[in-house]
Every structure is written in structure tokens, then in C-alpha cells.
């Protein structure tokens, strides 16, 4: 693909978690045959790229984030040949393809680890982090961060699951392996990488103990943003630069100062990073520790990042991915599912940055509630249930699981009201949400008021507006507990986005600059007049009107106005 500098900024991406996207060969598991069939659908959304969660061979202890071969495709998903077909078709549709790069750890079934554990004097013995005596770090997914290996007679570090041993990035041979992985995929033609927990790859020398009484993340100060991180990322950047490839970093608890360090200036080593503050508006650190949803918190997080990166870096915008429950069930309303799902689209797609949309988000999929903890596939859900809040009864802890489980975003994609939601012709590998007969792509395709078509309109509006792509961001009424109001401006063009987070009607003052002027309604999830896209321009000329100084929004209503000042 031909790419200009910073080509990814204009684009928007669709994230595919392949196992639950579309089953093309009838074994109940999503795969690259299914993806191939659905590429036209992806294109029809108006996105310009795909991020694939890991497609590599993996024992699936952490569903692909435990890789046993970096240069191949999981046989359940297809093979390299099928991947190439998907890549070529995606490129023909002008969809960029971003792979997941997981290099903080491998699977314990990766040949490197199988060799490494054999002894202390083979070529792979220093590929991982081995110690005679473990420190007190906790793992993020599974108990203690160290596991004893009988054969080697030492402990290995795993910041995530036991089956995810951490690589020793201080070993230059390991970094050469990473570069060879990058080249392998770049040579095939991929356009970039989403880099998994990339801020953890350099550990502090001596691996000092963390604070004893903090659960899960006690060691983080010693492995996050570590001493050699910049220099390792620089090495990887050089390879990516040869191909003008896009690099987006991921890592828990990103701070503004670290994101600016990695993504700006001459020595920048990543193009952008995911931040997490806006994912904490209804919880403390993890969803498992619930708090009432606070719109004020959410707005603070949005505006903090919009301002912090303005004119310096670039935001990665998202509300869902494979690590978080569904946004409608979290910050929205099941009762006003359609309205709130549309409102969420407008509340983030028009911020400044590159939007990411997670499969199923565009039809307003919701959380599942399984009765038995053993029915959950995600190991972090099971771990949370078994280790935290033990003073509570099972029912209460199950309720926490219903709100927090990553499995809610990993149920099969709901394509139609047919058996198995049109995802597969046989029983799928995982539970389908019971609401699939009502919430599915087919039902929404021809409904102009659907969530799906609202996403399409939003993405098209963003793509065709310089103001929405590049304009300045400004928030109004930050103290309003029910309504999020923001503006994008460039030259004399202004967009005003109003989003109600309330289940009852709410009134808000029209910001001063918009009073006594003609405003054009570009989008609304209630106004029927705004649905007909073709007639839009004529329509809006007609609809352009001076609004009263106070506007009443219906439950979860969103409106986008445009005007010239
Ligand atoms: C972040 C990934 O998004 C998540 O799914 C995974 O469990 C951890 N990193 C470990 O790879
Ligand atoms: Ca399959």
C-alpha cells in the first residue's frame, strides 16, 4: 500500500478477535475464511483498517496472547496462504492491516521456552527470566509471578499467566528475534503492529521487591517504563521505519508523560498509545471492583487526553476491545440500548484521534451473564472469582463477574437471527448472547435508525470533515453530570456534539457561541428527518435553524450540529 507520513491518523480501525468473528469452515470456531467473506462488510462500515488480535498458533491459555509460533497462523484460523488472501483482499479494499505483537512473553509451549527450561547452558537458556529465588511480585492474571520448573531447578517470571513466561529482552538475541518477527510480517505486507503490554518489556535491574501488601500490581513500579525500554523500542522502530509501518503501543496505566515520551519528538518510538483513564469511570483499577458510573470522571478522562496530546501527539480512541465488557452494559442502558449505543458512537468518534471499533460494538452488543463460573473461558474471570472478595457469597461474586468479565466481549458475533446467530453452522465454541434474535447485523442492515447505520454515518461524517479530523477540541459544561458537550473547530467551521447519559429527558444551555446562529443538524439518534443520508445536504439546508437557548435532550439522545462562525 502507498502511504504518506502519519497515514494512520486519518483512518479508523476495526478490531477483529478472530475466534468469535465468523466461522468460515463450519467447525464452530471463527477463522480467516470467515474474515475473508466478511471483508466487504468491514469495508461497508467506513473504516480504513483492521487490527487483528493474535492469529498465531497458541495453546490459548490467554486466547492467543500466549504465542507458540510467531511466524505462522493458528491451524484453527487457517494458514499463511489464507492470511495472504485476506491481506490482499483487505489491501484491494484500501483497508490497512495491523497485527498484534506480543513480545513481553511467549507461551510456555514455545520451542524457545521448551529449550530454555532444559538447562542453564543451551542457546536459549537466557531467553527468559530465571532466578534461584523469586521476588515478591504478583502476577496480573494468576497468583504469584514466579513458577518453579523442576527440570531447570529454577523459577521463571510470568507477569501474566503461568503459561506466559516473560522474555528476557535484555538478551540481544531475543531482540534480534523480535526484529526478525517484525520483518517477517512486514515482508508479507502488513501495515503495522499493536504492541501488547509493550511498557513492561524492560525490567529494573536486580528485580527489586515490590510493596508487600498490594495485590496484583505490586511489582509494577519495577517493570513498567523500565530503564531500557526506550532503547529497545528504538531498535524495533528502525525496522518499522523502513516500511513506514504504524506502531500503536498498549500497556496498563499509561501516563501522559510516558505517552509523550514514546510518541513525540525526534526520537519517537511509537505512533500512538492506548490510554485507560476513560475505562475507569465505573470501577477501581479493574471492573471487578465496581463503583457507580460517573460521567464527570469519564469526561475528565476524555478532556485530559484531548488536551495533553493536542498539537504534540495523537490519541487512540476506543470504548471497547477484547479486554473490556460491552460499553452499553457498562456506561449505557440496556433499556435504551439502541439510543445509548448510538450516543456512544458520537461521544468518541468525533474526538481528535484515530478511532478503533471493536467487533459487535457497531451493532450495540451487550454483556452476557453465565450462571456458573466454570462456564467462563477467560482465566482472569475465574481467577478473580476464586481469589478476590472471598468474604462475599458466590452470588455476589458472580454479579461482579457479570459486570467485569472479558468474556462479554468475546461471545460470537451476531450476524443474523438464524441458528447460532449466523456465526457458524454448528454449535459455536462459546456461548452466544441470548439477545441475538433482536441484536444482529441482518436486522440492522436495512433499518435506517439502527446502531449499525448510525456508526456508518458517524464514520462517513468524520472522514469527510477536515474539522473533525484535525480541528481543536473544547469541552463545555464539564460539571454537568448528565450531558457531555464538546466542540471541534477549524477556521470558521464548528461542530458541536451533545450526548445525554441520562435515562430521562434533560435540559442543557446552548453554549454562547452557538446562540442566535443558524445551526445545521448533521446527526441525531432520534430525529427521523436526519436519517436519509442522500438527501442530507438539501435537508440540512432546510433544517438549519436558530435554536432556543435551552435544549431538551431525550434519554440518551445525541445530536451533532455544524455551523460557521
Ligand atoms: C493485553 C491483552 O490485550 C490482554 O488480552 C492480555 O491478557 C494481556 N495483554 C497479556 O498479553
Ligand atoms: Ca472455523
SSE layout:
Elements: E1 13-16, H1 32-45, E2 49-52, H2 80-92, E3 96-101, H3 111-116, E4 130-131, E5 146-149, E6 154-157, H4 172-188, E7 192-195, H5 220-223, H6 229-242, E8 246-249, H7 256-263, E9 272-273, E10 283-284, E11 286-290, H8 295-309, E12 316-317, H9 327-330, H10 337-349, E13 354-358, H11 379-387, H12 394-404, H13 441-445, H14 451-463, H15 466-470, E14 472-476, E15 483-490, E16 493-500, E17 506-509, E18 518-524, H16 536-543, E19 545-546, E20 550-553, E21 558-564
Parallel strand pairs: 1-2, 1-13, 2-3, 3-7, 7-8, 8-9, 12-13
Antiparallel strand pairs: 4-6, 5-6, 10-11, 14-15, 15-16, 16-21, 17-20, 18-19, 18-21
Helix pairs in contact: 1-2, 4-6, 10-14
Describe this structure in words.
There is one protein chain. The protein is of the alpha/beta class. The chain folds into 2 domains: 7-109 and 166-456, Alpha-Beta Barrel (TIM Barrel), CATH 3.20.20; 472-564, Sandwich (Immunoglobulin-like). It is 28% helix and 16% strand. It is built from 16 helices and 21 strands. It has helices at 32-45, 80-92, 111-116, 172-188, 220-223, 229-242, 256-263, 295-309, 327-330, 337-349, 379-387, 394-404, 441-445, 451-463, 466-470, 536-543; strands at residues 13-16, 49-52, 96-101, 130-131, 146-149, 154-157, 192-195, 246-249, 272-273, 283-284, 286-290, 316-317, 354-358, 472-476, 483-490, 493-500, 506-509, 518-524, 545-546, 550-553, 558-564. It has an 8-stranded parallel sheet with strand order 9-8-7-3-2-1-13-12, with helices on one face. The longest helix has 17 residues, at 172-188. It is globular, with a radius of gyration of 24 Å. The structure holds 1-deoxynojirimycin (NOJ) and calcium ion. Residues 62, 65, 102, 160, 196-197, 322-323 line the site of 1-deoxynojirimycin.
